[in-house]
Amino acid sequence: MGRRRFLLTAAATSTSAIAYGKLAGLASPDAQNIYAVANGSNAAAEVKDASSASYAKKITTDVVVVGSGAGGMTAAIRAKQRGVKNVLILEKRAEPGGNSLFAPIPKKRDEKTSKAQIFKAAMESTGWRGDPRVIGTMIDKSEEIADWLKGFAGEAAKGGVYDGKLVKILRDECDRLGIQIVCDTRAKKLLKNENNAVIAVVAEQRGEEIKVEATSTVLATGGFLGDPEYMKKYFPIYDDNFSTEINTEGLLYTADGIRMALETGAGDDGTISFAWGSNKMPFFKGDLKKFPVVSILTDNTRTPAIWVNNVGVRFTNEPEKNATNAIYRQPNKSCFIMIDTGTVEYMAGKLPGLVSLETLQQEIPALIDADQALVTDSVAAIAAWIGGKRHILQNHVDTYNKCCEKGFDDIFYRDVDMLVPLKKPPFYVFRSGLALRNTHGPLKISGMGSIVSKWDWPIPALMACGADIGGLHANLLIDGDESHSIEWTIASGLRAGENAAAYMNGNRPVQVFEFPKYTAKEVMAGHYKNTGELPAGTAMPPSGSQAPRSDSGTKYH
Ligand SMILES: Cc1cc2nc3c(=O)[nH]c(=O)nc-3n(C[C@H](O)[C@H](O)[C@H](O)COP(=O)(O)OP(=O)(O)OC[C@H]3O[C@@H](n4cnc5c(N)ncnc54)[C@H](O)[C@@H]3O)c2cc1C
């Protein structure tokens, strides 16, 4: 048996027990080419530690993707669509999908909103700290998503549908294209050649180290919600009590892709965001679909409820889309949602046939049993339940009611049509609070999906997408826009997949703006140096100094 055949057989045998999907694909005619790397391949390049390290198994492929969420699977499918023969996904969990299992299929973009409007809104949401080139590219790519998904999933790609459908259609497409998802395999380290190009991933599989050599590598490991070091670094008041105060809805990832990339010389973009779950009832572990009426009545954008903290203080303009962020400031990050019979009747008038006192009464006993809701005529009972002070709570309810009478909220300036008083007992109170979903950032990337150094120089053959990348979001986010995160995960996956494929085109110029005139072969051979160092003697402004101001006399406010 020739060496290639031997490796092929070994790879097929040893991964079969853990691969998701049809590993038989390895023995298909395509698989014959698993080692047939394109001209731009780095397979011939030296792996720095190859001589010292020994691996239980070596696999060679064209593109290796780390992480099988929507970002990783999108990148893999796109690379395959761009002509890459062999694409392999490594997944550390037993099942593919990651947090993308919770996300919806993105809807088709509203054509009435121009790219310029989306761009400005996106930049504004980051306080203009976001990377305009990355944001611009992702907006372009986002426009393709709906048609792209439809292209292989047809009507199953209906926008707005949850229940893991997005992951299912991406998994099905990976299957159809012969992209293997090798589960229970955790990537640990990236190997580079002397030209700084990433040429292999070292992973742990059932206690053994394996090496996956590839021409291009894409990182898509879903963020760092479960990594105390990163949480402390980026979340100013993260402390060891955090998890008792803030529920987490997302999978607790340990920043694997981020750490590997930083070790490899990636820049830290610094634009981090944390997504909160919506302020409904995150502490109730049951399925909210079983509580459709409570779900509406605790939705701050729909129902004129008031929120109080566990002292009894009303603390924000509740119906605002981003009001959830205000919970972060409250003692114990506490929030209770209060409505009364009058609010229910008001909503019943707006949504007849859906909301009524009867339907609410059918749902609420289970929430009371779980200590997630209270129904009472007494403000004192509410104060006792939330652990606050009766007179403080009474004062805040009275003040709010006076605003309703005046038709003007001179405290938080709530819109007039959301000023509905709380005067008709019984009161319905729901335990709410903050739930952290996932993180975004901080890997610095180019608009083409390449991971770049702090000098903005791309690290050849290394891409990233999804929640690991920075530049797109900043600050805290809530999920007011149902696709804000998944849309850019897929958009960045498309871009990363395209760029990964570009490295296979050895003798053609790489279709990426950062290498306008080099072929992949030249890039991999180090014609394009990735040091970012300035020529000796270059004058730099002293550290901390400001960029020179325009002398045009313009005044900035
Ligand atoms: C509860 C919840 C609800 C959400 N709802 C919405 C919503 O309504 N709308 C929206 O736009 N977004 C939503 N999001 C956010 C959305 O899910 C994320 O933006 C998206 O999943 C990010 O995709 P990803 O591919 O980057 O990461 P993920 O989908 O999380 O995938 C990362 C994958 O990488 C794997 N991995 C990690 N480390 C390694 C390693 N070392 N080796 C191999 N594999 C590794 C993980 O196991 C995982 O499978 C929600 C998130 C949560 C948690």
Descriptive notes:
47% of the residues are buried. By secondary structure, the protein is α/β, with parallel strands linked by helices. Helix 2 runs parallel beside helix 5, helix 2 packs parallel to helix 14 and helix 12 packs across helix 13 (390-406). It has 15 helices and 19 strands. The protein starts with a helix and ends in a 33-residue tail after the last helix. It has a 7-stranded mixed β-sheet. Strands 2-8-7-6 form a 4-stranded mixed β-sheet. A 4-stranded mixed β-sheet has the order 10-16-11-19. The protein folds into 2 domains: 3-272 and 438-502, FAD/NAD(P)-binding domain (3-Layer(bba) Sandwich), CATH 3.50.50; 288-432, Flavocytochrome C3, Chain A, domain 1. Mean pLDDT is 83; it is low at 1-51 and 543-557. The chain has helices at residues 3-15, 70-81, 115-125, 132-153, 165-177, 228-234, 242-245, 256-263, 292-297, 341-350, 357-369, 379-386, 390-406, 484-502, 520-524, and strands spanning 19-20, 57-60, 63-66, 87-90, 180-182, 185-192, 198-205, 208-213, 216-219, 247-248, 273-276, 306-308, 336-340, 373-376, 427-431, 435-440, 450-452, 458-464, 475-477. Helix 2 (70-81) links the parallel strand 3 and strand 4. The chain binds flavin-adenine dinucleotide. Flavin-adenine dinucleotide (FAD) binds at residues 66-72, 90-93, 98-100, 102-104, 186-187, 220-222, 249-250, 253, 256, 437-438, 466-467, 479, 482-486, 489.
